[in-house]
Please model this.
Amino acid sequence: MTPQSPSTKENLSHRSDDADWYRSAVVYQVYPRSFADSDGDGTGDIGGLIFRLPYIHALGVDAIWVNPWYPSPLHDGGYDVSDYRDIHPDFGTLEQADEFVHRAHALGLKVLLDLVPNHCSNSHPWFQAALKAGPGSAERELFVFRDGKGKHGEQPPTNWTAMFGGSAWQRVVDDDGNPEQWYLHLFAAEQPDWNWENPRVHEEFDSILRFWFDRGLDGFRIDVADSMAKDQSFPDMPIDPSTGVGTLDKYEGSPIFDQPHVHDIHREWRRIADSYADSDQGARVFVGEAYLNPAHRLAQYVHPDELQTTFNFDALKCAWDAASQRRVIDATRDAIGSVGAPCTWVLANHDTVRPASRYGKASTGVIHTESGIDHSAQPTHAELEAMPTDVDLGRRRFRAASLLELALPGGAYIYQGGELGLEEVEDLPEESLQDPTWLRSGRTIRGRDGCRIPIPWSGTEPPFGFSPDGSSSLPWLPQPAHWANYTVEAQDKDPGSMLTLYRTLLAERKANPALGDGDLSWDDDVPDGVLSFRRDPGFRCIVNISQAPYPMPAGAELIAASDDVSDGKIGVDCAVWLRV
Ligand code: NOJ
Model:
């Protein structure tokens, strides 16, 4: 059987040219530092992004989400923003940003930016002013400063733990070297949390949204969208017995995550986004980043008057296990669908182990049982990092998972390099590690650099076209030599490559009226381990996560397969798209 050319889509009403474009959109995530370097300094930039726009367009996606490009000391890859209305000089200028947005629009691509509202950089002028102004000042009220506990205030105000390890409080030392108040930072100490109880913070972010919307941005991805509001009684958290410190579990009632009044902020922003409804571009759109489980908690964020969409991290983290996958798919559809929002499907991002590696480990992710997540089956970070990886197996499964992801109802996200099947680089030299997790974990958890390696575009040796020929600076993270086989150039004309598979799937998705927003119906007459569903009109997806090949259904026309099916069988860890 040979794959057929894409079918014709008659009804384009739910595609990206209407107000509901986000309900079906495939969004390509660009981590600018690692995408393409136009000036040879080893760091990706907006010039590189503009240069590679035709590549993104030809891939067949609908929108681009750009990770933070603001001025920042880059203590956390740009999630430590020192100026929300400008561009990091390493990445370019505001004029280049405007040009990028303009050119993307000319190609029919929407552009989403990253908004980082929970915290800024400790180099942000308002934080610097707060340090200088001292306790009790209006400047300190913009952040979360508190006196410490203990006789001399020597203990942090609460036992809250930072996401990157250690206490979530940092003590300030005044100009004379005397210790004084503490400030809250849910992430690194270089990322002080804003005080969202202060109306001035609301005004500032409203104005930042308008600044970018007025420049033509189509929307924002909201960083840690569930964290801005804190319980103002500042209670201690339960102790996690495995670590002996305050838990980071997002349990219901956590003082830092998913506080009820965080929704007031989202409603405020939605009103701003909707105020652009009459502009040429129409209302602006949000996607929230909130790692919340079960799905009904996430659904609270996509009520009709809040964010339009939210990432589906249950899907991203789900084990390569048919029962777990189906539970996540159904729970997502039920919960997100119940408030009228579209589902999104996500396999990867700049914070997580690339799927080509994750699916090649003994533990491929979270197991979902009838009663919820099986926590006993979850390895720790350190155990996962130490677990051997079969990348060939992982890549085979990732190909199949991509067919599943792109066939499900709703929108989907592709993290740059996913379309090349890149794996996690797990053996980066320690001296090259930059993720704050590495230092804050006492050099026990390597962190996320392995999924942020600069993209290999062409050629046979590093920098693989990431930087211009003859550049003297090396890429900011080293690329593995064997990526010569995974460059865009190497995969471009190869009918069996991951890149060709993605182009095929995305072209079909654009053309086939069954795909994108809508619903699905499961086939239940398949063996355990086989996922099979249909979408109207005439589309069927089969994913084999069982232990035995599954016969190709008679009379179906093959649209795409993640692996060779010429023997008439859908092998183990293989998926197909069929016209039925
Ligand atoms: C989530 C972002 O994706 C991650 O990269 C960052 O470190 C944290 N939020 C803190 O901003």
